[in-house]
Amino acid sequence: MNQLFDLIGNTPLVDLSDLQENPRIKLYGKLEGQNPGGSVKDRAALSMIRGAMERGELAGGKRIVEATSGNTGIALAMIAAKYRIPITLIMPDNSTEERVKSMRVYGAEVILTAADRTIEYSRELAQEMEDSGDYVQLNQFSNDDNWRAHYRSTGPEIWRDTEGKITHFVSSMGTTGTITGTGRYLHEQSAEVKIVGVQPTDGSSIPGIRRWSPEFLPAIYDPTQVDIKIDVSEVEATTTMHRLASEMGLFAGTSSGGATAAALRLARDLDSGLIVCIICDRGDRYLSTL
């Protein structure tokens, strides 16, 4: 009988090739919404909490504090509930109602900060709370346990399930843990695999995809693991999210739409290849925005 954490990872690939017209291109989406917490962030959250526990950072009933745009917070709340660890999550107040309620139903305290100050202020507040001495910040943006989760699981799964035939891996860039860890593993298997990072165009607001100011660029980001960057607009991400639902029967979030849009643009420029993009979560946590 599986325990909850046994269900994190080993997510399936689904064929999305019908979204594009080149018969020499195979396009697959890795369905991270199949994780028990509903997103790719389950992997990193489990890795970071276990790492903190192993290092004794949470001894004595210490409370976790973490800034999040949504999916990491839900994953952390789920895992903290299972381990009976108190947790406070900080996020901008324009976060979807579904995300906030999901965290609270797991028992997390949620602090909402002004949306116009962005997630960067949420990160500053989390740091201030940790500096008070009463909290432990996992800091997904500088925590090596984040990218290591994908080096240990996401990368090997993709290599295995494509039988080593993958030519391009496409991932939206937020904390950059997914692309850094998966990219490092795939590059070690073959220098020919191209790692593609997806960023928002200037002025676009896409949940889960960020273009960081230099002082807030995640410390775990390794630019040597990203071969190509593709900028995607908010309209393009949203339109492709709707295409995934209406044409493929796959309801995912906006960042998944962004990654798929980038993969489709890439497919138009290639003669042949096998592309895998991350479908990072389920779409039900965005219903109030549609």
UniProtKB/TrEMBL annotation:
<comment type="pathway">
    <text>Amino-acid biosynthesis; L-cysteine biosynthesis; L-cysteine from L-serine: step 2/2.</text>
</comment>
<dbReference type="InterPro" id="IPR001926">
    <property type="entry name" value="TrpB-like_PALP"/>
</dbReference>
<feature type="modified residue" description="N6-(pyridoxal phosphate)lysine">
    <location>
        <position position="41"/>
    </location>
</feature>
<dbReference type="InterPro" id="IPR005856">
    <property type="entry name" value="Cys_synth"/>
</dbReference>
<dbReference type="InterPro" id="IPR001216">
    <property type="entry name" value="P-phosphate_BS"/>
</dbReference>
<dbReference type="InterPro" id="IPR036052">
    <property type="entry name" value="TrpB-like_PALP_sf"/>
</dbReference>
<dbReference type="Pfam" id="PF00291">
    <property type="entry name" value="PALP"/>
</dbReference>
<dbReference type="GO" id="GO:0006535">
    <property type="term" value="P:cysteine biosynthetic process from serine"/>
</dbReference>
<dbReference type="GO" id="GO:0004124">
    <property type="term" value="F:cysteine synthase activity"/>
</dbReference>
<keyword id="KW-0198">Cysteine biosynthesis</keyword>
<keyword id="KW-0808">Transferase</keyword>
<dbReference type="InterPro" id="IPR050214">
    <property type="entry name" value="Cys_Synth/Cystath_Beta-Synth"/>
</dbReference>
<feature type="domain" description="Tryptophan synthase beta chain-like PALP">
    <location>
        <begin position="5"/>
        <end position="281"/>
    </location>
</feature>
<keyword id="KW-0663">Pyridoxal phosphate</keyword>
<feature type="binding site">
    <location>
        <begin position="174"/>
        <end position="178"/>
    </location>
    <ligand>
        <name>pyridoxal 5'-phosphate</name>
    </ligand>
</feature>
<keyword id="KW-0028">Amino-acid biosynthesis</keyword>
<feature type="binding site">
    <location>
        <position position="255"/>
    </location>
    <ligand>
        <name>pyridoxal 5'-phosphate</name>
    </ligand>
</feature>
<feature type="binding site">
    <location>
        <position position="71"/>
    </location>
    <ligand>
        <name>pyridoxal 5'-phosphate</name>
    </ligand>
</feature>
<protein>
    <recommendedName>
        <fullName>cysteine synthase</fullName>
        <ecNumber>2.5.1.47</ecNumber>
    </recommendedName>
</protein>
<comment type="similarity">
    <text>Belongs to the cysteine synthase/cystathionine beta-synthase family.</text>
</comment>
